[in-house]
Write a structure and sequence with these properties.
This protein is an alpha+beta fold and about 475 residues long. The chain has 2 domains: about 5-235, no CATH class; about 260-470, Nucleotide cyclase, GGDEF domain (Alpha-Beta Plaits). The protein has 14 helices and 8 strands. Strands 1, 2, 3, 4, 5, 6, 7 and 8 form an 8-stranded mixed sheet that branches.
């Protein structure tokens, strides 16, 4: 099966986030419905005190209709969340109902107001309340739908009212600009006069606001996609890389999307005799032991700038110089191996106090060329480091049993560390060259350096003597 491209992975991530946003919109619809009901109730109380009966009853009835539309919207969406049309339908119903209330007079009202006054009452801003409410859908399309629907309905209302027989507009005056200010003012104040340009200005503004709101929602969605992707990457990377490297990798999205060939140090670590060791433990105790062991060892890997490639049962594989090559990769690998051994020594002291069995480990480190990249299938991808260097590092770890040591280094990683540090650096204390070792799968032998406490003590004493013999400045 061919590897999954970065674009395909990104599309899958966006699809999952899209579904998450849709679920949040559905979950928020219930809250929006009750919020609408509370708002309508508050408006109803205000109307009851401000508008005399029976005129108030008409407006109270329309408030009930708005609540009913909200409840119907919620019921339809909860019954079948996969349908896309309910949002557009109920937005349209809201806008049509509001437009009807603003354009047509109350049938209960006994006054004789001309229909042209509907365009002069300053009621158009009520549409902005419903337009703003569409932000809760997290859908730029529904925001645009609401704005366009408002604009079309109000435009139709303007044209219909301006075409009434008794309507006066600017076109009824052949020389409007030549009229005196007093005459223009009197005409503006005439009940049946309609300022068509001013009315369409509201339509233009609502379209502009719609575009702004839709772009804000779109940007919010993109920000959610990007942030979720970054957090997903950060969580995944934190399992493998040190915290300081995670920040760098999340900023460089292409680092793990491509294949790289470069030199790196590879480490294998394993608990010796773990099979027989585990026979004495319950499955739960075995799991707790491995968790504690892996936690201590991975902490040292990250502390030395390494990458945790994978846990392998009772062991692990770590790399240094992957995916970002450093100036002390070989040195960090050796220092990490020593720190791991020291951590095991300390842990064994704690285990001795409780009468638990001691743990022995073998650590093998090699340095050479590796290739890194994503491997796996479309369902499961994994960042991996492979190559002959990896195989040799694993073989060196197995040699620790025959050499009777906790740590074995290849001559390559020692040479690389010497190139990074002074030749007599204390990091090499305790290591001695062993006879050439046969490596399974290789035709030639390999020089290996093994660690021992006796050699470490000798090197420590030598350094103390060199300090004592140093001339006093």
């Amino acid at each position: 099966m061919p590897p999954v491209s970065v674009t395909e992975l990104k599309n899958r991530i966006e699809s999952r986030i899209e579904r998450k946003i849709e679920r949040e919109a559905i979950a928020g619809l219930k809250q929006a419905t009750w919020t609408r009901a509370a708002a309508m109730a508050a408006i109803g109380v205000w109307i009851a005190f401000q508008v005399p009966f029976p005129t108030a009853s008409f407006y109270l009835f329309t408030l009930v209709l708005f609540v009913a539309i909200g409840l119907a919207h919620q019921l339809v969406v909860e019954r079948d969340p996969t349908r896309f049309w309910p949002g557009y339908l109920f937005i349209t119903l809201d806008i049509v109902l509001l437009a009807a209330i603003l354009i047509f007079p109350s049938p209960i009202y006994q006054g004789d107001w001309p229909p042209q006054m509907a365009l002069r009452m300053g009621n158009f801003p009520y549409f902005y309340v419903f337009l703003a409410g569409t932000l809760l859908t997290y859908s730029p399309r529904q925001v645009i739908w609401a704005g366009v629907t408002i604009s079309l309905l109000w435009s139709v209302a303007i044209l219909a009212i301006s075409m009434l027989p008794d309507t006066l507009t600017h076109s009824d005056y052949s020389a409007w600009n030549e009229l005196s200010p007093e005459t223009q003012l009197q005409t503006f104040l005439y009940p049946t006069f309609v300022d068509v340009p001013a009315a369409f200005k509201d339509v233009f503004i609502v379209l502009v606001v719609t575009g702004v709101l839709a772009s804000v929602v779109w940007r919010m969605r993109r920000l959610a996609f990007e942030q979720a992707d970054v957090e997903r990457q950060r969580a995944n990377l934190a399992r493998y890389f040190s915290p300081n490297l995670v920040e760098e990798l999340t900023r460089d999205h292409d680092t793990l999307g491509n294949e790289f060939i470069q030199d790196a140090a590879v480490m294998f670590l394993d608990i010796r005799g773990f099979t027989s060791f585990a026979e004495q433990l319950s499955p739960r105790d075995t799991l707790e032991l491995l968790r504690s062991f892996h936690g201590r060892m991975s902490q040292e890997v990250f502390a030395h700038g390494g990458t945790l490639d994978k846990f392998i049962g009772d062991g692990l594989m770590a790399t240094f110089g992957v995916p970002k090559k450093g100036t002390r990769d070989a040195t960090n690998a050796i220092a990490c191996a020593i720190a791991m051994r020291n951590a095991i020594v300390k842990w064994n002291r704690e285990r001795d106090e409780f009468g638990y069995q001691r743990i022995d480990v073998g650590i093998g480190v090699h340095h050479g060329t590796v290739i890194m990249g994503d491997i796996g299938t479309a369902e499961r991808l994994e960042f991996a480091v492979i190559g002959d260097t990896v195989n040799v590092a694993s073989r060196i770890e197995h040699l620790t049993r025959d050499l009777g040591t906790d740590i074995a280094l290849s001559d390559s990683v020692v040479a690389a560390a010497h190139a990074e540090l002074a030749h007599d650096d204390s990091i090499f204390d305790g290591f001695r060259e062993a006879p050439e070792q046969a490596i399974r799968g290789r035709l030639t032998g390999m020089i290996v350096w093994k660690y021992s406490d006796e050699a470490a003590e000798e090197d420590h004493e030598r350094r103390l003597q060199s300090i004592d013999l140093a001339p006093t400045p």
